[in-house]
């Protein structure tokens, strides 16, 4: 099917959650939430986020989908999001602690709270009605939450919640774009397209993806995001030394294998080089789609998980803080 000639409602929806639209706070706001998620959520594929459209379309349709959504959101105002209130879900054998977002576009008292998100959802549904799983789950509304911890039982949930509520400082950010995300298998999500709110002349650099603060074109020369690569598809029980050894020409200055809450390594790591030029050169040595054994690299600025080496996604760093 040619996306440029087919009707958008006929674009093929992904059969699984490897293709989604998530709402993601900027990386600089992650620390307090993600430090908890790192200790209580295994196999995370995205940093703190609100699951929004899940599943979305197959990646083949993303470029045209981004263009069509850009038109649909050309007069969409930015939305202020505040994370301050905790809630929880009880499951049969576990419980989930979450933050319940509040929404309120700045300067518009008549367009507030959840209505803003319902409007955003309705605009997307008008273009791609086939991606209606979110609507069905919420019975026509967007039920927003940011998962913070997956607990073994209610007692653990109460303990974690009490500790967080005693020290948590509310987090606010401006929702001004959405991300069309895709992941390979169980790897983290990658930003494939960014769709801005408002007319092109009013767009500002996105939080993730091309032209974001970590992008090669905009990053400060010595910013860790601009000097870091995410390495996906690592062999089981890969060590930091083995991760570093993948880069034989210029060894990274720092390297870290991401750990699950139980301390077991994931097939995922992040490496940081001394200079952006070294990072550029090492990235260029890798096949774009990865090696035959499935290992591949991506720039950190295009990934929505993990964080920099020793950052909020580092189990060892979080436990030591």
UniProtKB/TrEMBL annotation:
Gene3D superfamilies: 3.30.70.330, Cyclic phosphodiesterase
Record-annotated RRM domain positions: 229-278
Protein name: RRM domain-containing protein
PANTHER family assigned to the protein according to its UniProt record, in alphabetical order: 2'-5' RNA LIGASE FAMILY PROTEIN, RNA LIGASE/CYCLIC NUCLEOTIDE PHOSPHODIESTERASE
Superkingdom of the organism of origin: Eukaryota
InterPro entries registered for this protein in UniProt: Cyclic_Pdiesterase, Nucleotide-bd_a/b_plait_sf, RBD_domain_sf, RRM_dom
Molecular function in Gene Ontology: RNA binding
